[in-house]
Amino acid sequence: MSPRYWGDMIMINSYFVRNVLNEVQYSFPISETPFIEISTKLGISIKELIMTLKMLKSSKVIKRIGFYYNYRSQGEKAALVALNVKDNNKLKEVAKYINKDPEVTHNYLRLHKDYNIWFTIRRRSIDQIVEFVEELSRKFKVERWLILPSKRVFKLSVKYDLLLGISRSGPFSHVPEHVPNVEDLGIPHDLPNELRSLSVKERPYLSIARKYGVSEDEIIYYINLMLKKGVLLDPGASLDGHAVGFNENAMMILTSRSRLEELCGCLTNMPYTTHVVLREVLASESAFEGVKEACYGVIHAVKKALIEDIIYDIKNSCEPDDLEVAYSIKNLKPTVR
Known about the structure:
The chain is an alpha+beta fold. The chain contains eleven helices and twelve strands.
């Protein structure tokens, strides 16, 4: 079954499937038998739940079920990059070049007054990100670009409330300011990667525990520790938003002359934001005259009107000096990360 068929079924015909997806997104148990607990809560058999989840995974509605591994605990740096590609005939070629890089995690064509391609990229250093952007700019003769490194990540939780029709962050979405490396916690180096995508079965941690020569209970201890420290984030299912009808998303850029961190904190406390990041400007161009830092947030929804209502609330509650919105036109790189 195609993602489009499943998206139509989920949003229109199947209250059951929407409930299953909401449950596995927002209430994923941190226990040795999470799927058994979910099936009990939903009042269905474990066999029926596993069959449903496997079908949704095979049709690409569910991208993975597991945990997000915080890039900062891996010693990596990240930046949002914005390009002004004037020649529309070059857009596809530029996007293809960007998407070939395995460390590009998101890439959107957005409606913005100065920049149209916005992508996020990771490297071991900011200098390596600058090198990539400079090489790209020379190759495609891109004259205007921005590099916006993450100064502080406040929030990360990409979840879609299929009953409300708008993104809503889940538990463990707030990111601590200082995140340790896995080794500092006395945890096996590769364990977080093992936990990114779990097998859909009654005891998903059993094979992982056997691999590391520990008990399932110890794996749960490690998971709770990493969630507390911000090494792992956002447990549960990661969905393809477009497959479930979430075709609208808006990137908000908020500025303030004197209370930028407070502004990011206000945006973080809004339940419908999926990302909140304080970013600085390292490139020669700036999206705002004289502004060197801004708070960036993202909202997803099935209708633009729902996003506009939330933005209205954000303006009134957070009171930024300025708030600019860049709606997505096209997702240039659907991703599982």
